[in-house]
Write a structure and sequence with these properties.
By secondary structure, the chain is an alpha+beta fold. Helices cover 33% and strands 25% of the residues. The protein has a domain of 82 residues. Strand 3 and strand 4 form a beta hairpin. Helix 3 packs across helix 4.
Length: 129
């Protein structure tokens, strides 16, 4: 016997319930859509660290949206490297403030000490996994 399918919610924003967060200090706490939108308006609330290294920029932000949508560890932070030839924009996602800062600083140190080739090797290694 087939189970009846759930009909989609009348309010599409209901799909975001339980997946939006704001920061209180450095800790993500659940919030509703209107509160998330207000929080995210401020760049100060979103930007964790940014570093320009030659033509590249390493940027770590708080997205406030769980990219796993409840399936596994929450992914609320993103570190992206901008400026790589060919419009490649590798992105690393993290669950906590400390993980995000650690990833950001790892990439900055990698670029500053070993250069773009080392970053590309790390990207290739990650895509093979």
């Amino acid at each position: 016997m087939n189970k009846p399918q759930k009909s989609p919610p009348d309010d599409p924003t209901a799909l975001l319930d339980g997946h939006l967060y704001k920061l209180v200090g450095k800790k993500p706490v659940p919030c509703q859509l209107a509160e998330w939108m207000t929080f995210m308006k401020s760049a100060t609330n979103r930007i964790i660290e940014q570093k320009q290294i030659g033509n590249l920029q390493v940027s770590t932000i708080f997205t406030g949206m769980d990219r796993h949508f409840g399936k596994g560890e929450k992914l609320l932070f993103e570190t992206t490297v901008f400026g790589i030839a060919g419009d490649l924009q590798p992105c690393w996602r993290s669950s906590t403030w400390n993980q995000a800062v650690k990833q950001h600083r790892h990439l900055v140190l990698l670029l500053e000490t070993k250069g773009i080739d080392a970053l590309m090797a790390e990207i290739n290694k990650a895509t093979e996994a």
